[in-house]
Specification:
Radius of gyration: 14 Å
Number of strands: 4
Order of helices and strands: EHEHHEHHE
Structural class: alpha/beta
Shape: globular
Number of helices: 5
Length: 121
């Protein structure tokens, strides 16, 4: 899987038309790991047990049981370039966690709905 930047409107429109749950992770103004994790928790509507660290984010992304039932889920990451430039190591970690979550949900052994992540231009 690749997290190549894509236009946001077509992805959101297609997901919403298909009845998917759509979530927006806006990284505008985020300059620290703690801030990106807080923003992730809010964007994902994470439950109270979300611990605010990379492992907890990975756990949240492979659960998603608190989200409404839907045929799929789309996370649109916006305003990410400044964070990626300022915090390249953290950005790489976040990207790996997102990719792992997409891979997890794509293994359709038990009929789980897919997860798609779009980096919006």
């Amino acid at each position: 899987m690749s997290l190549d930047p894509r236009p946001l409107a077509p992805a959101l429109s297609a997901a919403e038309e298909a009845g998917w749950t759509t979530l927006r992770l806006d990284l505008d103004g985020v300059r620290s790991k703690a801030a990106v994790l807080r923003r992730c928790g809010r964007a994902l509507r994470a439950p109270e047990w979300f611990g605010g660290n990379w492992d907890a984010l990975a756990d949240v992304l492979t659960d998603l049981s608190w989200l409404p039932a839907a045929p799929g889920r789309l996370i649109a990451v916006t305003s990410w370039r400044a964070y990626a430039a300022e915090r390249p190591d953290d950005w790489e970690t976040l990207g790996e966690i997102l990719e792992d979550a997409v891979d997890f949900w794509s293994r359709d052994a038990d009929g789980r709905p897919p997860l798609t992540v779009v980096l919006a231009d």
